[in-house]
Amino acid sequence: MRAVEITAFGAPEVLRLGERPQPVAGAGEVLIRVSASGINRPDVVQRKGHYAPPPGASDLPGLEVAGVVQGGDAEAMASAGLRVGDRVCALMAGGGYAEWCVAPVEQCLPVPQGLSDIEAASLPETFFTVWSNVFDRGRLQPGETLLVQGGSSGIGVTAIQLGRAFGATVIVTAGSDEKCAACLALGAHHAINYNTQDFAAEARRLTDGKGVDVVLDMVAGSYVAREVECLAEDGRLVIIAVQGGLQSEFNAGLVLRRRLTITGSTLRPRSVAFKGAIAQALREHVWPLLASGAVRPVIHSTFAAADAAQAHALMESNRHTGKIVLTW
User: Fold this and answer.
1) How confident is the model over 42-52, as pLDDT tens digits?
2) What distances in angstroms separate CA 206 from CA 187, 219, 288, one per listed residue?
3) Torsion over CA of 114, 116, 117 and 119, rounded to 10 degrees?
4) What's residue 297's pLDDT?
5) CA distance 178 to 198
6) Phi, psi at residue 202, to the nearest 5°?
7) Which of 78, 113, 172, 262 has a 20 to 30 Å separation from 247 between CA atoms?
């Protein structure tokens, strides 16, 4: 099969289309003929040599795909209601940049009614991540306020729509007025240009001084101190990436006085059972919203698999709003 390989750690040009043996589905797995592969920031970090796959996972990049089930563990498939020929999207720990991949049955979801494979391939990584961190760890409730850092990213456009769909007021940050406008068009109630405004001060102003209830943070570093400042009493800060650096200093007194929670997670190394539970929650609560059009995928660009280097260059430029997808 054709597959996009990381030939050495470095710039986007190290991604090359090569040949690999077709994978074989093991116990609890399905074999998928891939139509489209979603691109995510962790793929970029892996390409640079800073995010190794978990033990046992493919060394190929790619955490999400959409395609057609071609076979697999018959008993596991039957118990999940999957059959050969079904269109699915799937989350995996690696191996998604390929014409064929294997994925745990529990991490597969049907392609929502009315969606293309390209749209479906953009869903798993961001929807699993947002559900797990905003709703499970962050415990976002209707009527609360959610602050999303990087609202125009794949994670951001998902968090905007799900936050609003479940009754929260959504504030986002983005790096330009154009991106702020795109976030507002997707349903954000307020958008802050972090290059021209102090997001912490704006968040407090927009909440009449109360502060926000949940922050979804992909930056960390120096942002943490300001996020602590703009959290409401009993607020929750959830860190899911450290693009701004590993080290943070913040006012611990505010954490005590306001009873704040600072937490975080990374999804890739978690167990199949853990991810399967998220998949079930998504199927129950979110997939109907996708089928109805109340929530929709946001695709910025598609690239042929042979042009994966160009796709990574676009992601690193931060010029996109929404998801970037490879096609096979």
Assistant:
1) 999 999 999 99
2) 16, 21, 31
3) -100
4) 97
5) 18
6) -65, -40
7) 172
The pLDDT value given to residue 328:
98
Q: pLDDT band for position 160 (50/70/90)? A: very high
- Rounded distance, CA 295 to CA 146, Å? 17
Question: Among residues 156, 213, 211, which one has the least CA distance to residue 185?
Answer: 156
pLDDT of 131 reads: 98
Strand 64-72, strand 87-91: pairing: antiparallel
The answer to whether the CB of 30 falls within 8 A of the CB of 72 is yes
pLDDT at site 65: 98
CA 280 – CA 251 distance, rounded (Å): 38
How far apart (Å, rounded) are the C-alpha atoms in residues 291 and 112?
5
Write out pLDDT tens, residues 192-218: 999 999 999 999 999 999 999 999 999
Contact 33, 101 (CB under 8 A): no
Residue type, 157: V
